[in-house]
Design goal:
- By secondary structure, the protein is α/β, with parallel strands linked by helices.
- Helix content is 41%, strand content 11%.
- It has a five-stranded parallel β-sheet with strand order 1-5-4-2-3.
Length: 165
């Protein structure tokens, strides 16, 4: 028969799991197989752009508006040349800053969002930012698919960066 302390530990772990599954939408979605509306996985694959493709697009004459929707510290350390900081997409203040950055842009403006704070499957910023722009009526929004992080998937490939701001 298991000891009382082992049963107590198992019960605590089970309670924590149940609470997580009931209260955290992302955890429910992870176990149910459906992504939450704000996750990176809620972005249609057709609206993703790979780092190599964005690099080529930036070297062409038809440059999109590139907005970083993650941490300002990361943006100051290194960002895509010409990118603008638009606030963390997971925060209401970040979404307000994002809206202000695009307020004067035509709804057909080509926009690329990126974060790069962490692996794609844990990014809290790109999903909400993408959906906010669509809610505002923007029709040409892409999201840079960063599988691991900005350092590995952009800087580590030798792509150009700017620092500061």
């Amino acid at each position: 028969m298991p000891s009382l302390s082992k049963l107590s530990s198992l019960f605590s772990a089970a309670c924590l799991l149940c609470t997580t599954l009931l209260l955290v939408p992302q955890a429910r979605a992870q176990f149910s197989g459906a992504p939450p509306d704000s996750s990176a996985f809620s972005i249609p694959k057709a609206d993703l752009i790979q780092p190599e493709a964005l690099r080529a697009l930036l070297q062409s004459g038809d440059k999109p508006l590139v907005l970083q929707v993650g941490s300002h510290i990361m943006f100051a350390q290194a960002h895509i040349p010409g990118a603008q900081y638009a606030g963390p997409g997971s925060q209401p203040a970040g979404l307000e800053l994002l809206a202000s950055k695009v307020a004067a842009a035509p709804k057909t403006q080509s926009i690329v969002l990126y974060c790069g704070c962490c692996p794609w499957n844990r990014c809290p910023n790109v999903g909400p930012a993408y959906h906010r722009l669509h809610d505002l009526g923007f029709t040409h929004v892409k999201v840079l698919y960063i599988a691991n992080n900005f350092g590995q998937d952009w800087v580590g490939k030798g792509y150009s960066v700017e620092k500061g701001e």
